[in-house]
Task: inverse folding
């Protein structure tokens, strides 16, 4: 009865946290979007359109010459300045391309399982115009489609990397605190050595170890391992302290007396009592993982083409002149910022809800 009342108080406290709810909704939308990225994307993220390099975002129109046409876009034509020879794009109002919902488009494999050409929206399979919601990059690739695909890498790398780092940190921290002695000393000195290195240079050093000839999928897994290798140390330190406190509790002493193995005591008694902390720290660690992957890919040592990520997409906006000429290339940075803030909001809400003193005060 007491456990159910506590759970109810925790749920109420969590759902009362407004920023936490906003973050949760945004994250739900982001993860649903990347799950159905192929359906939502009007184009294949690898498809190039050589005559439409750096096309600005398409303007969706509703009326043509004061006549209602529904959502549509005009055609685009290249214009070259006779003096500077600079290329720009203008709308060709003689060409109208309606935007359709639930239409056919480029063929893809949905979730890698079966082929289909169904898209949530687009101009249709036979249309000669283009719909670039977020503009195009230097190769004429649709930035909107590439952001959705890049989110698959950035957001999943954060989840998987955090999961691995928390599991490693929890196990090593529990072993260090439970056994103590020379094992504890060795582990703690090793952690101190690793923590003495600046994080970003250590990321880059480890990323350089990955062979350049690896396939994109292997590089992705390698980056996740690199991020996890750096992120477990803080978790291990805190879990060690909690273990030092818990190992003297009556239920642990009783488990030793009845002859339970050390492995069972750690996995069945100690770690479950730290699960609240592990859930909170995992949620708050995901933003760091996302930023880490983005930083490594932005510097050219992470995800490689043809795979893409938000950090790799930002690499095209490295210079001020590029940002000034093509500001839409900074849009992946907005997605990074929104996802990081959302995870922080959810983490803060979880921390407040699971804090027994704050929960009692708010209830």
Result:
């Amino acid at each position: 009865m007491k456990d159910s009342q506590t759970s109810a108080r925790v749920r109420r406290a969590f759902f009362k946290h407004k920023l936490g709810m906003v973050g949760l909704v945004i994250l739900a939308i982001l993860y649903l979007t990347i799950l159905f990225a192929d359906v939502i994307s009007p184009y294949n993220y690898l498809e190039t359109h050589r005559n439409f390099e750096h096309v600005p975002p398409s303007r969706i129109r509703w009326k043509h010459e004061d006549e209602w046409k529904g959502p549509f876009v005009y055609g685009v034509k290249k214009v070259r300045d006779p003096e500077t020879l600079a290329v720009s794009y203008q709308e060709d109002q003689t060409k109208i391309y309606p935007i359709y919902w639930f239409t056919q488009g480029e063929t893809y494999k949905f979730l890698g399982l079966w082929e289909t050409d169904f898209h949530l929206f687009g101009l249709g399979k036979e249309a000669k115009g283009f719909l670039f919601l977020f503009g195009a990059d230097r190769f004429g690739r649709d930035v909107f489609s590439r952001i959705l695909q890049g989110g698959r890498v950035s957001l999943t790398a954060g989840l998987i990397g955090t999961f691995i780092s928390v599991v490693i940190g929890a196990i090593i921290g529990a072993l260090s605190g439970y056994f103590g002695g020379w094992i504890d000393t060795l582990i703690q000195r090793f952690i101190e050595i690793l923590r003495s290195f600046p994080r970003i240079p250590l990321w880059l050093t480890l990323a350089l170890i990955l062979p350049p000839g690896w396939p994109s999928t292997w590089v992705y897994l390698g980056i996740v391992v690199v991020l996890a290798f750096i992120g477990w140390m803080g978790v291990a330190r805190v879990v060690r302290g909690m273990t030092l406190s818990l190992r003297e509790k009556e239920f642990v002493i009783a488990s030793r007396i009845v002859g339970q193995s050390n492995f069972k005591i750690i996995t069945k008694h100690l770690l479950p009592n730290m699960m609240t902390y592990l859930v909170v720290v995992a949620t708050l660690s995901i933003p760091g993982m996302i930023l880490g992957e983005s930083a490594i890919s932005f510097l050219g040592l992470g995800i490689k083409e043809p795979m893409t990520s938000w950090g790799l997409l930002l690499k095209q906006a490295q210079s001020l002149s590029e940002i000034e000429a093509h500001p839409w290339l900074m849009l992946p940075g907005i997605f990074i910022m929104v996802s990081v803030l959302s995870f922080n909001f959810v983490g803060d809400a979880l921390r407040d809800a699971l804090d027994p003193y704050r929960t009692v005060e708010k209830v």
About this structure: Residues 2-35+147-362 form a domain with the MetI-like fold fold (CATH 1.10.3720.10). The longest strand covers residues 67-80.
